[in-house]
């Protein structure tokens, strides 16, 4: 679990719209690996490569490769994550996709028509070739002893206007579901905002500093980008929010150099925490990940894409709401904001 951060608190930058609130956040980063690392190689530098690898059962990230990596090493990595033996692999790249020549296992990746970053490798099993023996399966272990691949799943928290705070608490505490934490987290945010009225001005908050502090402490208000940014700094971790409507990830604290990240999923109205479950029932779920773990970002996007295909999201411009104070029916967040501005009513329920 995380302890609170020492030092100053964190504000948001006015760069991009972000789900779930009236604030702003860093632009969505998706699953880009960022600048490649550079590693010395015998008196010269050799840029480390990362690729996305799409197979029948999902998309993976291949790391620790370079222009000097041998073809057989690439095939070994692919075999370990897909279970497709090297002799049965067909690797396609480019558009339209063309099959790479894998006949020379000692050839270097730098000699192949692939780019160091951004290329998607499509891996297929060549059905014309003999199938791999049962001893060669995913992760290089025999089928009868290998573990099932850990999966990323959503944990549903109550839809009580405080789902953001409950979800953040859940992930930073390592999987503790405690809806009663919300009032304290709201007061924490209010204290941080009140401590820096120059930064947290009306231009940032959409209301005066004092009005915001009173507003966020109420249990009928929703958290969003501003609150996520503050909590990212307080817990000293990157908070990634994957949106099921747009299938993108917004990463709060991405540029702060944090070593850990946690993930939430957002459907346009509601936040839930994400965790990695393991096949061994004695292994607790994992909610805190390394900030270098690109695979978890790919898994999060796959989860969001699946939810979108199943229409498990709320279109915030078209969904219907009811004011729980005066019972007026409203359509979309724009009407809800206007109603709140005119009446001061901020307690809405989805119809």
Question: What does this entry look like structurally?
Answer:
The protein is an alpha+beta fold. The protein is 25% helix and 24% strand. Helix 3 packs antiparallel against helix 5 (209-216). Mean pLDDT is 76; it is low at 6-45, 131-148 and 312-316.
What fraction of the residues are assigned to beta strands by DSSP? 15-25%
The total count of strands amounts to 17
Supply Rg: 23 Å
Shape: elongated
CATH architecture annotation name of the largest domain: Alpha-Beta Complex
Mean pLDDT: 76
The CATH topology of the largest domain is given as Cathepsin B, Chain A
Number of helices, counting only DSSP H or I runs of 4 residues or more: 8
Q: What top-tier CATH class of the largest domain fits best?
A: Alpha Beta
Helix content: 10-25%
Secondary-structure-based class equals: alpha+beta
